[in-house]
Amino acid sequence: MTTATTGKSAGRTDGKTRAGAGAARKPATMAQALNRAMRDAMAEDPSVHVLGEDVGTLGGVFRITDGLTAEFGEDRCTDTPLAEAGILGTAVGMAMYGLRPVVEMQFDAFAYPAFEQLLSHVAKMRNRTRGAMPLPITIRVPYGGGIGGVEHHSDSSEAYYMATPGLHVVTPATVADAYGMLRAAIASDDPVVFLEPKRLYWSKADWSPDEPEAVEPIGRARVRRTGTSATLVTYGPSVPVCLEAAEAAREEGWELEVVDLRSLVPFDDETVCASVRRTGRAVVVHESSGFGGPGGEIAARITERCFHHLEAPVLRVAGFDVPYPPPMLERHHLPGVDRVLDAVARLQWESEWTERPEAFGGAGTPGRGGR
């Protein structure tokens, strides 16, 4: 496991990143935390610039950049033409001249026209120059489903970024992580693809914007719920689903541990494998398609490192291998609690089914009631 290289405003341990006893904590949304992260970064470091489509006067389609232009001016928070390749190409030039651009790709699938810039320049420049020219670019991408978005508005494209060496890829699932991880991403001297689960923008938690709590750095996962029966490995928009599934699983007699990856690249093998070695079973859950998706890599890493601790094969619960469906059908496409629990039920538990499969029609798969 490696961690992100940090720049001049990275990893600060003063009141901006440590929880304070006197801080007033009140309900805040992930959207508010992301907005505050950019505002604080811009206030502390004049090299931080925000650019993207409608990020200025409108404040972005999700209002994540609301108020930044009014506070810092159009030169620091800049509306751009509708040209993603041009936006990211401009950011490359800005970073080469010493700035720290924060780019907003308005929706997940809107980012595809910028892939040539991303793969050919953003991901490779530091390697190409033998470390002489880092590109401290943060690419914010609202991603995933669950909001009833139409075509090009609900993709889970994290596998593309994960498969591109030279990029860090992170995704928060909590209000505290949204702030802390975005601050770390902006401060990093490596390019960071910051995936924002758009259906969690309005999720709330008690949080202090003036003295936000410290969070794990880029490259570290976190156990969100402890358990002994099996490990649910997940990230981003699927974290609340897995926490709900873990609560429901108690009725079946399972105590499920939930690991929030937080960082897809670098990947925290240590935390994930420690959990799986304790429980002996694992299910990987994500919205991205199953075939060629992140779950395959995660399952392989678990199997390679935990083979002699596994009581069953590592299973995956993922989006189906189809283009993202229309809004009225997305509830069938997205991994839900029932699909997660059905996968847990297939983890080869000791039972009459596993000992006498012929009594249940051969080598079939039991439902949740057939443990």
What does this structure look like?
- This protein is an alpha/beta fold and 371 residues long.
- Helix 3 (84-96) runs parallel beside helix 4 (115-122).
- It is globular.
- Helix 2 (68-72) links the parallel strand 2 and strand 3.
- The chain has 13 helices and 14 strands.
- The strands form 3 sheets. The protein has a 7-stranded mixed sheet with strand order 3-2-4-5-7-6-12, with helices on both faces. Strands 9-11-10-13-14 form a 5-stranded mixed sheet, with helices on both faces.
- The chain is 31% helix and 18% strand.
- The longest helix has 15 residues, at 30-44.
Could you give the count of β-strands?
Answer: 14
pLDDT under 50 segments (min length 5)?
Answer: 1-21, 359-371
Bulk shape: globular
Report the span from N to C terminus.
37 Å
User: What composes the largest sheet?
Assistant: 7 strands, mixed
Portion in strands: 15-25%
Give the proportion of residues in helices: 25-40%
Radius of gyration: 21 Å
Overall pLDDT score: 90
What's the tally of helices? 13
Order of helix and strand elements from N to C terminus: EHEHEHEHHEHEHEEEEHEEHEHEHHH
Q: Structural class of the secondary elements?
A: alpha/beta
**Order of strands across the main sheet:** 3-2-4-5-7-6-12
